[in-house]
Amino acid sequence: MQLEEARRIIEGTLPTKRYVHTLGVVETARHLAELYGEPIDQVVLAAMLHDYAKYRDSGEMKKIAIELGKRELLDYDDELLHAPIGAELVKRELHVADPVVLRAIANHTTGEPGMSRIDQIIFVADAIEPNRTYPGVEQLREVANKDLTHAVVRTLAHTIRYLIGKEERIFPLTIETYNDFIFQLRKGTVI
Ligand code: DGI
Ligand code: FE
Ligand code: FE
């Protein structure tokens, strides 16, 4: 699928605020892909489609989660569904078949241990796109321009702190990803 076709679908699917967020993720992801030498076409398509299922009925998405053998998702916040089930819906409804694009959509909320540089770009771009305004976002933007792996760790730390602040359950994959990326970060330094 071409970016322009995806853009039209997303414009017609998401409310204005979420569409504007999506365009911010696309431009931020494009910048990071250029900076880190990752394939632009796959990155911008994944960015454009990453929140495709954000406002889908959670009951419908839970059924698909069960079909896919992802029952563990049902024990956590419904917000988690839109990433992995969104990837499945993008495949089924928009006929996007590229596993690189689908994976980046699937893990954009929790991350995933060992996730690719493309996945990392979508994950970080989602957190730092220009419409994000939370405290610390400016510093995270600077880190993202210097060290993508470090930006992944910072983003996960921010999410985990936010969830602890709300006394929410933390999905194990989020913690597993945090541990994996801390390990990767340490490997790059002499301890
Ligand atoms: O879809 P966006 O708003 O652009 O961003 P996102 O896909 O990162 O989703 C953020 C939401 O997901 C936010 O409400 C917090 C929630 N979330 C992220 N990680 C976890 C989580 N919720 C739970 N329960 N556990 C997690 O590990
Ligand atoms: Fe999302
Ligand atoms: Fe998003």
Number of beta-strand segments: 0
CATH structural fold name = Hypothetical protein af1432
Task: Calculate Rg over CA atoms.
Answer: 16 Å
Major β-sheet, in short? none
Overview of this structure, please?
This protein has 191 residues and is mainly alpha-helical. It has one domain (3-187): Hypothetical protein af1432, CATH 1.10.3210.10. Helix content is 65%, strand content 0%. The protein is built from ten helices and no strands. Helix 6 (99-106) packs across helix 7 (117-128) and helix 8 (137-144) packs antiparallel against helix 9. One fe (iii) ion (FE) binds at residues 21, 25, 50-51, 126.
Q: What can be said about this structure in brief?
A:
With 191 residues, this protein is mainly α. It is built from 10 helices and no strands. Helix 3 crosses helix 6 (99-106), helix 5 packs antiparallel against helix 6 and helix 8 (137-144) packs antiparallel against helix 9 (148-165).
